[in-house]
Structures are given as structure tokens and as C-alpha cells.
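Hi team,

Below is the intake form for 4-O-methyl-glucuronoyl methylesterase from Limnoglobus roseus. Please confirm the fields before the structure is written into the shared record.

FORM ID: S-0412
PROTEIN: 4-O-methyl-glucuronoyl methylesterase
ORGANISM: Limnoglobus roseus
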Amino acid sequence: MALVAAADFPPPGDLPARKSFPDPLTTFAGEKVTTKEVWLKERRPELKELFQRYMYGRLPESGKVTGVVKYEDKQAFGGKGTLREVELQIDAFGKTNALQIYLMIALPNAPVGAVPTFVGPNFGGNHLYTTDPNIRIPEAWMYDKYPGVKNNQATKEGRGLATDVWPLEVIIGRGYGVATFYNGDVQPDRPNVDEGFRKLMPKPKGDGPDDATATIMSWAWGVSRCADYLSTISEVDAKRLAVVGHSRLGKTALLAGAFDERFALVLPHQAGCGGTGPSRHDDPKAEGVKRINTAFPHWFSTSFKAFNDATEKLPFDQHCLAALCAPRPMLYTNATDDLWANPSGQFEMLKLATPVYELLGVTGLEATTMSPPNKLIESRLGYFIRPGKHAMTPDDWKAFMAFADKWLKK
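The structure came back. Fields below:
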């Protein structure tokens, strides 16, 4: 079986139309994948190439990561844990210390030893999730809607106002570590401004495919750089990292999990269109490709915009991204009122990814219908929906940790 070379992938307009969901176990050239070896050596790399070519842009190479501890309290949370903030100095695009990520790490003081750890980007800055006055306030641009933000800049007024979104003390109390950073450390969430990661990228040349690294891919790259650092510290079990994120950062978590196999558990929360939800759908209550590309043109590559009115030409759908996480466990989490994120469509994506899990010798989704609210489907491909709206809440963290208890603490 021969792979189609990246250079041979046609322009979006020349792709064949298919209204049904593409089979993750059929190659671009139309050949069936029937063995684990062909999946791992040929189809999996091909799907990664397709997602870069037509949707997320290129995954940049990793660079050296140097961690400099800026702050540490070994008796945080009433003595139950350690709170630390580390400046990650990242080499990128041939430049030394080109980018800095400020990674806040919370770890339980007991048990002693390497612990499974949740890692992911946050909205609004680390200071929102702790009352400790020593945690840095971000300097990068951010939306005014986040707590304490004035004129698109974080302020001290936001400190500690969102501790229920990343409930650090609860997480360490369950025996997990947690590591998080402001996504704007990598790339502020706005288009058309030459800043952050975008400023470092080489400018495109010639008339080749427009698959420059888009914002969601840059955030996923940043999450992987955090994994680089976490794998060097003794308190974290690098073989038991769980990547987590909400909404656009849920899309980021899924993409990071799909492309970086060091994440043993993948937890994309309410990730919707462009993440856990299908691109091919006709649900008027759910976000679609044209709408997301119009509202957030920087999240995905220019190539992806060619599918605004032609999703049937996509050579994949989002179940194929889920399949790239196989055979690792993954949980999709949603809310009953968050129809924009297409909870039922996400469930279908898990169903369609299951054959890849089965090819690799494990079970996938062990349910045929969506669970009722607050009932966790805890199969290797899991699903959870709670009452309520679009948010990351303590109830969501209960589901994350219940799923992790089964799959990371085995």
C-alpha cells in the first residue's frame, strides 16, 4: 500500500465530494486498512498530513525547552500541596528563548512520588485560578470579557476570581498534579496582529498551499512544550499526562492529543465545531464551518476556509482526529444547553472512531445511545453530559477525575 505524498494532495476545490463521513480505515487513495501495522505506518501519518494540509496548518518542530522556577510555595493549600510557577524558555524557528510560557504547577505533597498530571491551556491567566499574590499576571493581550481585564490587559483585580474553573486544591486532593498556562503566552486570541507565535513564524513564500500554522495548532504546540518540561521533573509521571481544555482550548487539547502520543489521556471539553463536533452536519442549532471561519478566521488555516460552503469535499471529518488518539482513552464532555457545540454530533464522532480502536485490539465507545445527564460512560472512548451551559465547572472536573481514576490510575 502506497501513501499519497503530501505534495500530491490537490487544492481543496479539486477534492472529490462525499456527503457521508469518510472512513478512517480507508486511505486517501481508496485502499482499505486492515492491519495495525498499516494503520500505524501509513494511514495514521497520512491523516496527520491531511489535517495539517487542509485544516490546522503545519505542526512546527519542537525546540529546546528550559524551565526556570520563578516562584514556589511548598506549603500551599494549607500545607497539602506545592504551588510553583515556571518560565519555560522555548527555542523556536532557529531563535534561542524565542517564546516564554509561564506554567503554573500544583502538586500534592502526599503521596510522595511521581503523580498523574492534568495539563492544558487556560483563559485569562494563571492568576485567575489562585489567590496567591506571587503568581504572575499576564502581559499579553486578552479579551475584556475575562475577570479583571481592562483595556484588553489583565489586572490584579482578577486574582482568584475563577478558582472553580481550575480547582487546584480539589485536584491535588485527589492525588493528581495540574499544570496550566495562559494560551496567550503562545498566541493571543486575535487575528491580523503580528505578535506571539505568529511573529516568529517564517513568512510564506511562493504560491504553495496555504497551510501556515494557525492559532489552534500553535496552542497545541505550546501544550506539547509543557509536556517536554513536565517530563523532566520527578514529581510528575510523564507516562500519565492528561491533556485538558475547554471550548476553543478543548479543540486545542484534542489536537495536541492526536498529534502527541505522550498524552495518555485526552479530555476535550465542549470542543464543538473544529474539534470534537462534525464538520458535516445540517443542525441549525450547532455551529458550522462557515460560521466559525468567519467569526474566528485565525483559528484554522486559510485552506480550511475553502470548505465553508463545501464541507462534503473534506477528505476527513472530526472522527478521524479522534481516531488519531487510538488506542489511548479519551472522554468527550458536554452540557445539555450547549447545543452550539453539537453534543449529539460529538457522540456520533466517537462511534465512528471506534473501528480504529478495535483494529488496534481495544474497545472504543461501549454505548449505542447518549447517556442521560450526569451519567458517565466510562469506556475507553467515554462520554458525559451534564445539565447547564457552556462552561468548565467543578462537576466537569468530577467527571474528568472519575474517568482518570479508571484509566490513569490503573
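SUMMARY LINE: The chain has two domains: 19-56+271-391, 63-238.

Thanks, M.
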